Amino acid sequence: MSDWVAACAAGDIDEEDVMRFDHGGRTFAIYRSPDDEYFATDGLCTHEKVHLADGLVMDDIIECPKHNGRFNYKTGDARGAPVCVNLKTYPVKVDAGKVLVRIR
Amino acid sequence: MARGMVIVGAGECGGRAALTLRDLGYAGPVTLVGDEPHLPYERPPLSKDAMVSDAPEIRAIASDEVLAEKSISHIHSVQAMAIDREAHKVRLSDGSVLPYDKLLLATGSTPRKLPMPGLGARCVYLRTFADALAIRAHLHTGSRIAIVGGGFIGLELAAAARKLGAAVTVIEAQPRILMRGVPAEIAEIIHDAHVAEGVDILCGDGIASIADDGSEARVTLAGGREIVADLAIIGIGAVPVTGLAAEAGLAIDNGIAVDAQLRTGDPDIFAAGDCCSFPLAVYGGRRVRLEAWRNAQEQGVLAAKNMLGAGEAHAAVPWFWSDQYGLSLQISGLSDEGRSIVRRDLGDGAFILFHLAEDGRLVAASGIGPGNAVARDIRLAEMLIAKRAKPAPDALGSQTVKLKSLLAA
């Protein structure tokens, strides 16, 4: 059984941008990096449960829209106050123009 | 042997400073002195989420475990009484004396008192968690709440009180709410949201008198109107806590006066957060004092760096937010630096006002909308402000031009 779920079409997200993806009662953030790679993390900031997809992507950093908590969306690492808990990341692949996320 | 670092004030700023000293590898003693009984905690929720919670809790910046692990000594429920600059010592209200190599004053601010007789047990202010609990106990269906002051604290509390079913009257002496720092176009949206939620907002009428018999507060306005409330919450601004610094002979100028590195006139004493005034580089060194969560956090970090000799100058752009009902407002920069405004609509009723100086420089951006609709563009605006950019007004106003593209220009 496959855990890969289609999140969106590859062109749905601009380069260096992020999009919200809800699935199975959970929420995720799907990223497209400046060098055209795709990544996925949990959708909510670990500080105050805010949707990260409303935040700003700069290089490999997603910044929370509320309090500027920063994470590396490729690794999930928290990058400074007020966030101290890392983000969970998920494997992503692009297949036939679809962005697929392995949610487990 | 190192005397160590002493931080007076265990709020957002002091707490961040203590953690940063350790993050930067400082190994000597770090002592955080606070006058509240709690761990260092975040104050913004006190007028927002915590106020509508059934059982408000503290959101600590660091747990006891983290403080212990980092060997940060937290002395709570005491006041710093005096600084002996010559001897490099701080005397506390419990009689103890703390020696220091570097001292950080992060004493914060305290609510501005309503200069009027007649205030009693039913007239309160919000600053601390204890204040929040006392207010929370009065917010319920059927209670009557008067809010004196149409600023952020007052309006956030008005929203919380309505959510809990109280009848709310906001009293603002100025002709409109949010006169300080918020453009009229945005204040109007917030005003309308409150009215739609059933808040009675009275603007342009000052308070003539207050009579508080301990069970209710009777507020009489200059125009003759009388508001009877179970609780009157006064939110008319804050004043910096400077007594300790002043008595130690440090310069005070709308707060403890510091330079761009957050140093007072004494090279071993720093001040940061709500309590200090500092030169804001992005506006040519204009001296300001900011009462804002992010400023407290950033300055706590910067002060810690400079206590360790980094010599780094403050370079941040002021940033502020407020949540009321489903609306969120964010402001970066100081809008009074602007001479003209360009509006950008973002859909769903969200919009941003860009404030431009005479020479076309972007100096501030004020946005409002549902949820976090304005967050990303306000953040980009902040970067443009920091770069001292002069974006074309047409581009700022056009939804089809990405703000990020202006940053690269």
List the helices and strands and how they pair.
The complex is a heterodimer of chains A (104) and B (409).
Chain A (H helix, E strand, L loop, with lengths): L3 E6 L7 E7 L2 E7 L5 E5 L13 E3 L2 E3 L6 E3 L16 E2 L1 E4 L2 E5 L2
Antiparallel strand pairs in A: 1-10, 2-3, 3-4, 4-8, 5-6, 6-7, 9-10
Chain B lengths: L4 E4 L3 H12 L6 E4 L15 H4 L11 H6 L2 E4 L4 E5 L4 E4 L4 E3 L2 E4 L3 E3 L11 E2 L4 H8 L7 E5 L3 H12 L3 E6 L11 H13 L3 E4 L3 E6 L4 E5 L4 E4 L1 E4 L3 E3 L2 H5 L8 E2 L11 E3 L4 E5 L5 E3 L4 H15 L11 E6 L2 E7 L6 E8 L2 E7 L5 E9 L4 H12 L6 H5 L5 H6 L1
Parallel strand pairs in B: 1-2, 1-7, 2-3, 7-19, 9-16, 10-11, 10-16, 11-12, 18-20
Antiparallel strand pairs in B: 4-5, 5-6, 8-17, 13-14, 14-15, 20-21, 22-23, 23-26, 24-25, 25-26
Polypeptide structure, described:
The complex is a heterodimer of chains A (104) and B (409). Chain A is an all-beta fold and 104 residues long. Chain A is 0% helix and 43% strand. Chain A has strands spanning 4-9, 17-23, 26-32, 38-42, 56-58, 61-63, 70-72, 89-90, 92-95, 98-102. In chain A, strands 2-3-4-8 form a 4-stranded antiparallel sheet, with no helix packed on it. Chain A has a 3-stranded antiparallel sheet with strand order 1-10-9, with no helix packed on it. The radius of gyration of chain A is 13 Å and the shape is globular. Chain B is an alpha/beta fold. Helix content of chain B is 24%, strand content 29%. In chain B, strand 4 (80-84) and strand 5 (89-92) form a beta hairpin. The radius of gyration of chain B is 22 Å and the shape is globular. The mean pLDDT of chain B is 96. The interface between A and B is medium-sized, with 13 and 18 residues. Chain A: Residues 5-101 form the Rieske domain. Chain A: It holds the Pfam family Rieske.
